[in-house]
Amino acid sequence: MNAFYLPQASTQAQAEDRIFLTLLVLSGAVLLLVLALVVGFSIRYRAGSKARRGPLPAWVSHEVEIGWTVATLFLFLFLFWWTISAQLRLQIPPANAFEIHVVAKQWMWKVQQPSGVREIDTLHAPAGIPVKLVMTSQDVIHSFAVPAFRLKQDVLPGRYTEMSFQATQPGTYQLFCDQYCGLDHSRMTGQVVILSPADYARWVAAQPEGDSLAAQGEAIFASSGCGGCHGQGAAVHAPPLEDLYGSDVPLAGGGFVRADEGYIRDAILQPRKNIPAGYEPVMPSFQGALSEDQLVPLVAYIKSLKAKP
User: Fold this and answer.
1) Which pLDDT tens digit goes with each residue over 126-166?
2) Cα angle vertex 280, ends 276, 284, to 5°?
3) What count of Cα atoms within 13 Å lies in the side-chain half-sphere of residue 101?
4) How far apart are the C-alpha atoms of 92 and 130, rounded to whole Å?
5) For residue 290, which of 256, 253, 265 has the smallest C-alpha distance?
6) Could you tell me if 104 and 142 are in contact, meaning their C-beta atoms sit under 8 angstroms apart?
7) What pLDDT shows up at residue 1?
8) In whole angstroms, what is the distance from residue 275 CA to residue 282 CA?
9) What angle do CA 272, 134, 154 make, to 5 degrees?
10) Which of 245, 267, 211, 10 is nearest to 130 (CA)?
11) Which phi-psi region, left, alpha or beta, contains residue 100 (left: φ > 0; alpha: ψ -120 to 50)?
12) Radius of gyration in angstroms for the set of CA atoms belonging to the chain, rounded to a whole number
């Protein structure tokens, strides 16, 4: 690693550095132009010089002022469009992105792989494959930051936030919390270990065998009594959960809401927030009954439910 420059360890890092260097060069060019004009005018119009003084013709003054203002406006609009479109394009993960769940807690990062493997302050991921992190916090606001990826995302209590990346080279990269979160904030660090797809598969196979995230959620679903209303043959008229994730749910008050991780989480903890059309608000709240470590696999299980052909 260069002592003055972090590696470009993700596709996002390459794009962010390209934007940064372009803005740096343009800013430097404008600075040099202004500096040259200031120095040139200071010498040419110094006290006692024979330079011609007096007001310029009105047409010269107006054309220069209008031209400079319009050129600057169009340059700003182009830079704004270019940077925003590049960043938005990189932030949207593909539909088949590799999904890893992260739960922040004072003062640690708890990671759960799709296979069910759990990690503390370490996140393993394959190189060359889009990865989506679904993150939440158990207590206060944290911020998941990997400088080598040029990425940072706030992690909020009571809701999900997402961050996606595609690592370009295997290695171990520092993970930090970039939001002051309490007494031991400076110790809330970790590492992101990027492996080749083959090495990642071997690493997963070498971990203690356990249930997948969805399988853990299925057990929580059963033990919490959710099947009494949402299961096959239930007497209660409850919304079906099959094919729920990613669908547009009509609401009793009108309108629709996209059934993403946040909607499923709210339906469990705040069932009266978004009441589906055609159903009575009879579902109890599980606020306080389920921990964050139980909500993550439960949401994963509901996302995995598909209607039988």
Assistant:
1) 999 999 998 989 889 999 999 999 989 999 988 888 888 99
2) 95
3) 26
4) 10
5) 265
6) yes
7) 46
8) 10
9) 90
10) 10
11) beta
12) 27
Two tokens at 138? 């158990």
- CA 305/CA 237 separation, integer angstroms: 18
Supply 309's token pair.
């052909």
Q: With contact defined as beta carbons under 8 Å apart, do 119 and 131 qualify?
A: no
Residues 6+ apart with CB under 8 A from 188: 106, 107, 108, 109, 142, 176, 177, 181
* 188-215: pLDDT as tens digits: 999 999 999 999 999 988 887 667 778 8
The sheet with strand 171-177 has its strands ordered as 122-126, 189-195, 171-177, 142-146, 151-155
Q: What digits encode the pLDDT tens for the residues 76-102?
A: 899 888 888 877 777 777 777 888 999
* Cα angle value 10/13/17 (rounded, 5°): 155
Q: What is the signed CA dihedral for 229, 232, 238, 244, rounded to 10 degrees?
A: 120
In degrees and rounded to multiples of 5, residue 135 shows phi and psi of: -125, 150
For residue 36, is it left (φ>0), alpha (ψ between -120 and 50) or beta?
alpha
* C-alpha dihedral sign at 301, 303, 304, 309: positive
The DSSP bridge partners found for residue 167 are 10
Please name the residue that has the structure tokens 């007096």.
54
